[in-house]
Amino acid sequence: MAYLFGPVPSRRLGRSLGVDLVPRKTCPYDCIYCEVGPTTRQTLRRGAFHTDDILRELESYLARPGAAPDFITLAGSGEPTLNLGLARIIAGLKRLTATPVAVLTNGALLYLPAVRQALADADVVLPSLDAGRAHTFRIINRPHPSLTLERVLDGLEAFRREHRGSIWLEVMLLNGINDGEEDLAALKRAIRKIAPDKVQLNTAVRPVLEKLAQPLGPQELAAIAAYLGPGAEVIAEFRRAPEAPVMTRDETFLAMLARRPMTARDLAETLGLPLMVVESCLRRLQQAGLIQEDRYQGKKFYRNQSSLI
Fold first, then answer.
1. What values do phi and psi take at 300, rounded to 5?
2. DSSP of 50-98, one letter per residue?
3. Is the pTM of this model over 0.85?
4. Closest CA to 227 of 299, 298, 304, 173
5. Strand partners for 201
6. What was the pLDDT predicted at 240?
7. Which domains does the chain have, with CATH numbers?
8. How far is CA 21 from CA 28, 43, 69, 96, in A?
């Protein structure tokens, strides 16, 4: 599949079928914690990215027998709202399936009325906000030069006023960067204005782009959730068993590892396979030079070698 990946285990969305809407790595940000890699095309300009091909692939996949995922998630290797076909893709999914549609977005383009309108029929939109202060915003997200935090916050507030579905705001908390008193107070003020349905606290649990992005511990995250108040939660690790196994060809492993680093246990839970079987496959792919093993925070993560180029 060229544009679909998974279903993959998501800490927020259960078994999620991912849909890659933009070329790797096209984004308004170049976040220091990004697990996908450095931004190679930093832009605020939306473009037409294979919308018809994406819809055909979705139609073909959804026509197959088998258990449906919990969500179909528009995301992938860059910022999905940069795709001018976003509204058409959401509308197409609504015709094809009753599975709810989620959109993972950094929220950078929500200041544009056209983007907010394109997201109108999504069941859940999951934007991110990592800073309430401009200086911290620039350190963490390294935005396009013409993009300001004020514009991002205005877009999030406008989207909250207009959107009928759910909004789950993700905050990536990093040790020594946005976890201090002033930064947390600024985030709390911004969150109150946005009024999302949920505030989901994350930290750098996967390999990151810059070593500067260091994780917080569970107790620190719990304390910050308590400070931010009702609706704030720490995102738990996904441990749900899949309802049905999916294909286990080498191409399946390589496609999943091309889009994000995963542990052997992540893959085992996603594919419904014994951990020993997955580890054997990973060893074979590693010996063939097709995947690379990285260690991060005491865990082994695997990447498709082609995603490192």
1. -90, 125
2. -HHHHHHHHHHHHTS-SPPPSEEEEE-SS-GGGBTTHHHHHHHHHHH--
3. no
4. 173
5. 171, 234
6. 42
7. 4-244 (3.20.20.70), 248-309 (1.10.10.10)
8. 14, 15, 18, 18
Looking at the predicted structure, is the pLDDT value of residue 89 above 90? yes
Read off the tokens for 108: 């950078």
Q: Which residues contact 11 (CB under 8 A, 6 or more apart)?
A: 235, 236, 237, 238
- The CA-based diameter of the chain, rounded to the nearest angstrom, is 53
Say if residue 75's pLDDT is above 80. yes
Amino acid identity, residue 208? V
Site of tokens 């620190």: 220
Chain position carrying tokens 């995301």: 75
142 dihedral zone (left: phi>0; alpha: psi -120 to 50; beta) = left
β-pairing verdict for 166-172 and 198-202:
parallel
Q: State yes or no: pLDDT of 16 exceeds 50.
A: yes
- Side-by-side strand order, sheet with 232-234: 4-10, 14-20, 71-75, 101-104, 124-126, 166-172, 198-202, 232-234
The C-alpha atoms of residue 148 and residue 155 are separated, in whole angstroms, by 11
Token pair, residue 155, equals: 């877009």
Q: Nearest CA to 157 among 130, 191, 123, 126? A: 191
The tens digit of pLDDT for each residue in 199-212 reads 999 998 877 889 89
Q: Calculate the CA 223 to chain-centre distance.
A: 24
DSSP result, 129-193 = ---SSHHHHHHHH---TT--HHHHHHHHHHHHHH--SEEEEEEE--TTTT-SHHHHHHHHHHHHH
Angle subtended by helix axes 264-271 and 250-259, to nearest 10: 120
Q: Which pair of structure tokens corresponds to residue 6?
A: 């998974």
Query: Which tokens belong to 51?
Result: 């919308």
The rounded distance, in Å, linking the Cα atoms of 101 and 73 is 6
